Fold these 2 entries.
Entry 1:
Amino acid sequence: MMRGHWRGAWGLAAALLGVPALGQLEGPPEGAPQYSCFEAARAGGAVSESIAAQLCQGARSDSPARCFHRVQEAAFLEEPQALQLCQYALPSDDPASCFLKARTSSFLDESELVLLCRPPIAATLNLCPYGP
C-alpha cells in the first residue's frame, strides 16, 4: 500500500512541477507536422517559443518555418509581418518567393505585399475567424 502512495505522490509532484509523466518522455507521435514545424522554427534559437507556436498552429509541414526564416534573413521582415505571411504555408505555396519577387518589382509597401503573397487559406480564415 505504501508503494502506491509514493507513486501517486510522484505523479502529483511531477504534474505540479511541469515534469512529464514517465510514459510521456518519448518524442512526438509520427505525423505531427505542427511539432516538426515548431522544431524547425526554433532551430538556431532566433524565434521565441510563442512565435513558433503561433506560426505552426495548424501547419501541415515545416513550410511555415522555412518561409519565416527565409523572409527574415533575405528581407529583414519584422516578426509580425513574417508570421502573417508564412502562417498556413504549404509546400505548394511559396509566400516567401512571392514576397521577395514582388518586393523587387513593385512599389507596394511591405504590408500590401504580405496580403498579396500570403497563403490562400490565411485570407479565408480572416473572413471566418471562428472556424467554418
Entry 2:
Amino acid sequence: MTGLVMPDLDRAVLARRDGIVHALRAIVPGEGVVADPTSMRVYESDGLTAYRQMPMVVVLPETVDQVSRVLAYCHAEGIKVVPRGAGTSLSGGALPLGDAVLLSMMKFNRVLDVDFPNRVAVVQPGVTNLGITRAVEERGFYYAPDPSSQIACSIGGNVAENSGGVHSLKYGLTTNNVLGLEMVLMTGEVVRIGGRHLDSEGYDLLGLMVGSEGLLAVVTEVTVRILQKPETARAALIGFPSSEQAGAAVAAIIAAGIIPGGMEMMDKPAIAAAEAFVHAGYPLDVEALLIVELDGPAVEVADLLVRVEAIANTHGATECRLSTSEAERLSFWAGRKAAFPAVGRLSPDYYCMDGTIPRAALPLVLRRMGELSQTHGLRVANVFHAGDGNLHPLILYDANIPGELERAEAFGADILRLCVEVGGVLTGEHGVGVEKRDLMGTMFGEDDLKQQQRVKCAFDEKQLLNPGKVFPELHRCAELGRLHVHGGALPHPDIPRF
C-alpha cells in the first residue's frame, strides 16, 4: 500500500482468529461469516483501489440483533470493526484492517416503509441510492441526492460520507435529506435519533452522524425525505473556449440569484472521453462544457434558461443548446453520469480527487491545476459539481510504471492544499478516509483535531470502530482527557473535576 501507514496489527487478536471466527458464526450462522482468503479477496479495497488490505474476517449480518451482538462481542474482546456498504467509497473509508472484522451491511437491503403523506421513506442501509427513487417514482416522487454511482452506492454509505450529486446545489447533500437513523453503538446498544418529524429537540446528533465515516456507530435504518418531481426540468448545454471562462460563468449565474437544479462542468479531455463512451452529442471543439439544469414551473424555467444563456454569452460561450424534450435533457446528463468510467479510455488508471472551493475561485484553481499538471508530468481531466464548487479532478496515471502512483498522490495532495489555500475544504462528498487523512493538518490545528477525537471517544472509547481513518495521529481517550499543569497549578481550579 505505497507509503500509507495504518495502525499496527494486534498480534494477540490474530492469534485468536480461529476462536473469533467460531464465535462470530454462532452469532451469524449459515453463510454470514466469510473467512477463507479467496472469498475475502473481493473485500480487500473499496473504490480507492490504490490501497488494498485483506480483512481478518468478513461478517454479513441480516438483523439488527445480529449487528448488536457482533459489536458487543467485539467490544468485549477488544476486536476492531470496519463497517462497509457497497464499497464504492473513493477515499478508502471502507479499507479493511488485517486484524479487524469487516462488517458488510449489504444484506440490509429492504425498503421498510414509504409514507407519501409525510413524504418520507424508511429504508435499510444496503438499499441503493437509486433504489429509493425506484420505490417511490410511480407516485411522482424521488430521492434528491444523486451521486454518479447512485446505481450501486448504498444509502448507508451515503450517510457515512455525506454524499452529494449533480442536483445537490439546489436540493442539498445527504445531510439535508436524512430525517432519522437507527444505529448500533460499539457496545451493542441500539439507538434511534430523529424520525419522520422535520426537527428534533436537543443536540443535533443526526448532523453529527451524517458524514461520520463509520467512526461513531453502525447505521441499521435510515429515514429519508422524498420530494415530488418538479413540473418541468430543462437543461442547457453550453460550450466555452476556456475552463476559466466557464468557471467565471458559473459564479455569475449564482451571483444573479439563479439556483439551478444542477450545474456541472467538464473540461476537454473529459468531454472527449464521455462523448466517445455514450455519444451524447457533446461538442468536441470546446475547452469546457457546462450543463445547467433548471426545474420548476414551465414559465419560470423558460425565463431562467434565457437569462442563463445571456450570462453565458457575456462570458464568451461559443455554443448553447437548450433541451426541447425529456429525451434530450437526459442525453445531456448521460455523458456526465458516465464521465468517470469513460475517462478509463484515456489512461490505464486514474486517481479521483474530491475538494471544495468558493465558486469565485474556480478560474484561479483551474488555471493552477493546469500548472500543477505540468509540474508533476501527469494529465488531469476535470469533471465536477461546478455550482457548489465541489471539484473532482481525475489524475491520469499508469500503475505499471514505477513511481507514477506516488506522483499521482503528490499531485492530488497539491490540489487539496490549493483548495484549502483559496478558502475551501479537503472534501465535499467523498469523505476523508485514508486518502486525505494525513492532510487534515493543513486545515485543522492540533487542538481542533483533538477536540474532534474527543467526540469519537464519547461514542467509541476503545477506538475500535474504523481506526486509522480520518485522524492523522491517533490518541488514546485517556490522553485526550489529560490536563496541562503549569507551575503545579491546575487550570480553572473552580471547575469540578471527577
